[in-house]
Amino acid sequence: MNLRYLLKVPILFSTFFIGLSLITTAQIPDPFVYYNFDDPQGTQTVTDGSGNDREGAVTGNVTFGADGAPNGSTPSGAAQFSVGGTGFISVNSVDVPTEFGNRDQGIEASYTMACWIRPDQASFTGDRFYFGQGSQGIHHGFRGGNLYHAHWGSDFSGQQILNPDEWAHTTFTYDADNNRGAIYVNGVFDSEMNNQQGPNGAGPLIIGGRNGGGENYVGLIDDLAIWQEVLNDDQIEALSTGVSPSGIGSTDEDEDGLPDYWEDKYGLDTEDNGSIDKNNGPEGDPDEDGLTNADELENRTDPKKADTDEDGLKDGVETNTGTYVSATNTGTDPKNADSDKDGLLDGVETGTGELVDKNNTGTDPNNADTDGDGYADGGEIVGGTDPHDPNSKGALPLPYLYVDFEEDAADRTENALDGEIDGAVSIDADGAPDGPTPETGASFTGGHIDFPGLDMNSMIRDFGDGSYTFACWLKPIGSAGGQGFIWGQTNQGIHNGIRNGGLLHSAHWGADWNARTVLARDEWVHAVWTYDGTADSAAIYLNGELDGGPQGQRAPNGGGSFVLGASNNGTNQFNGFLDDVAIWREVLSEGNIQSIAEGVSPIGATMDDDDNDGLPDYWEDKYGVDDPEADPDEDGLSNLEEFESKTKPDKADTDEDGLLDGVETGTGKFVSTDDTGTLPKKADSDGDGILDGDEVTNPFSDPNDPDDPPPPPFGEAVIGHWTFEDGEELTDLMGNFPDLKLEGDAQIADGSLDLNGSGTTASGWAWSSGEYQGPEITNKTLVSWFTMESLSELTKAGSVISLDKVTADQFDGIIFAERQPNRWMNGSSHFRRTQDFNPGGEETVTGEEVMVAITYEDIGGGQVKVAGYRNGEEIGSYNSGNLRTWPTGDAEIIFGKRHGAMPGGPGALDALIHEAQVYGAAGNADEIMDLYLSGPGGGTALEFTNISYNSDDGNFTLEWNSKPNKTYSLYYSLDLSDWEADIDDSIESEGETTSYSFEHPEGKEARKIFFKVIAQ
């Protein structure tokens, strides 16, 4: 060890040996848990250095890699908590009541909890805790800016006020024998509470929060340790001087001034002080960066890595003075690749005063804005301007949020924090003529825009130092001469805008002030609000010039998400126009503010059109198009038409309403499905709560008329329903049709209507009188579940259900074998609405339950579409004229005959009707299949009584309640939507219970499968 080294570090050695003395007199016991937070970036499981394997699990925003406490035992790393979002660490293997006490359970325990902290400014407002547990109980940290020792209802505050962004050592102890809690700051006793109760609560140990992970601490933590005893004052003082909780740093076997833990970490020999190999000793320089090992220890750089921060400069030339002298004395920080935070690596900022290229900028690595023009050097390099010329200004930093209203309230940044319109806000007005996107602006006439994804606390107030810049173009109308807030949030806090007779106003809920200029009505201006969280100072700019401030202003209170055009959850709304709304999470320079007031785009977009094709260059770049006449999304609009209508050329249905952009002509008048008159950027043009596409499809309603809603869903459109069950044998369960009357030998037998006849003459039938009390019937569905007892050789031309008009010869019905043997058709007066179904449905056997349905749909022009279905499958459809309506008071239902209530009426049927329904809507194919699969009578999906699966052979056995002489179909699905796959469609009933075994249809690898069994 030579004289130069001794002269250089006398204080280092003095401190070091004092530390040894403390260790000798105040031996630190082994901790219960210890985290040095030297974990690598991206760590999700934090290593316990106590040897007890009590690892911590990261939840949320906890990062690693920051510099640690410089006076701690492991200054090379620390954990950063809840900066840019909340986060904490949960030690799930540690049950706090068991290890550290619970007063409600009679468990007493003493402890010491200690760590180094460097709190952000955000930790000095409200509750911010860094020791906690899963439920209530221990919560140590900050309350109202003071250190706080808390056992949930038995709490006290510290005395010493800490400073933000400064390291301090804090210790919390609890002596269960004497019921005494104490706080120490930097090794010195600070405050105490006698007769403090032990903690209550439950759950695991939490670091960085309390009570399950809330009220999160914001800042850095290093060398966190916990003991199950109360350390004495000497031991606590020793920790604050850098003695390791686990003994790291207390040993130097070769007495060369390099701690053994440090030599071990970097691969130096702990038993060689340099006498064997110089590079193991304090004077060695194994990485040849110009720094000795002793220098590297002092600088906290890597002795085996010549360029610790990988900025292109050796550690030895980065002297950390903050002043550039030469290439061998750059003044930069050897542990920070961008010392001046201008976006350029220190190594490319060569300090020559001359720009060569991006790898040799000639700028000052310690000055973010070398030419003082208000633009950072890195921004100028990116923007292609000269960072040495104050008249050559650089690019803007990217905003955190930017809404130009060219695509509704979409955020144009990569953060995708899109807005949601609430109330009277329309995005169809002209934009600011001097702004970067003058095509479209937003008109606020009684509403606002919510941005639920932008949390004003975690993303603005608690991010970094809490600074912001809010900028927009605005044209006040009703707010001119009065008030109206533009920048707000859902709960108190920020409410910047116009107030006190038309002045721009900056407000943090109780910390408010006005600018100087009264705004004129109906005139576009550019306004900027800034807040410097470090200095607690705000300013307002009008058209690029300072109009108010800098003014002292505290940080905002409140919470919730960002609101544009109002304050405090939508109150005090702005009345006027806005355009090019942008938020930065920093204070922009005055040069930046001037440039956006001059029309520079916050994201670099302009209306330039280099090829003069009518499409701005930025728009072509965004969507990857260049031909104004092309239609890449095939929606019927050319690229030029898409630009003019502000729709998306790469999305055929911009508003996702089920209609192509090309058919939404925006005229407000429906002509046809190719000219709907609807708005292509508004999914519900008439605001009736129904998508335009759903209104245009059947059943039709006018998508431009809110007073013309579509009928209710098919399942809710039942207007007649007969089950023939005990107690309701003849009753329409909907109450619209009078009770049925039985004629001839018709009877109710075992819950079914028994109909009889011979040839075309009915001997037993049923009908209701014409006093129908339901709605007018035009669109409809007739459906019946039945069992044929004979075929057309014995009876024919009868109906399983008919809808008949009393005052005229008019009926529709499900008719059997009138024109074709054993086939179904729609019966109608004089066959006016009758055609044979193709391929048709034919009955070939008796004794099986069948469902037949016929739908009748008004398709316009006096035309009706008739479709028939048997057991859910379509048997044919056709269009016919002679659309008819059955009014209230003039409709009857007939079973057996096909029409007419008088004796001897036409048609007969030999069948059991199990159930029947009339719907006031025309069901589609899917709805009829659903009716068959899950509706009344035949086709009902049955409930399984037992399901077993053998994982060895992959076999299922299913069991369900059944009926004798029935046949069942077994289906399966992988997603509950597609039931097309059947396992067996001819399973014979085994009596009251049926079981069926089969191999897994998708193989044992399939992890999810669903089954359905249906009676045929």
Short note summarizing the structure:
The chain is mostly beta strands and 1016 residues long.
Which key features would you list for this structure?
1016 residues; mainly beta; Jelly Rolls; 6 domains; 14-stranded antiparallel sheet; 13-stranded antiparallel sheet; 50 strands
The structural domain count equals 6
Largest sheet: 14 strands, antiparallel
Structural class: mainly beta
Spatial extent as radius of gyration: 41 Å
Name the overall outline.
Answer: elongated
What would CATH call the architecture of the largest domain? Sandwich
Task: Please write the CATH class name of the largest domain.
Answer: Mainly Beta
What is the number of E strands? 50
Strand fraction equals 25-35%
Overall mean confidence score, pLDDT: 87
Helical stretch count?
A: 13
Low-confidence stretches: 1-26
Distance between the termini: 98 Å
Do you know the CATH topology of the largest domain? Jelly Rolls
* Proportion of helical residues: under 10%
Description:
The chain folds into six domains: 213 residues, Jelly Rolls, CATH 2.60.120.200; 40 residues, no CATH class; 65 residues, no CATH class; 197 residues, Jelly Rolls; 221 residues, Sandwich (Jelly Rolls); 72 residues. The chain starts with a helix and ends with a strand. Strands 31, 32, 33, 34, 35, 36, 37, 38, 39, 40, 41, 42, 43 and 44 form a 14-stranded antiparallel β-sheet that branches. Strands 17, 19, 20, 21, 22, 23, 24, 25, 26, 27, 28, 29 and 30 form a 13-stranded antiparallel β-sheet that branches. Strands 1, 4, 5, 7, 12, 13, 14 and 16 form an eight-stranded antiparallel β-sheet that branches. It is mostly beta strands. 49% of the residues are buried.
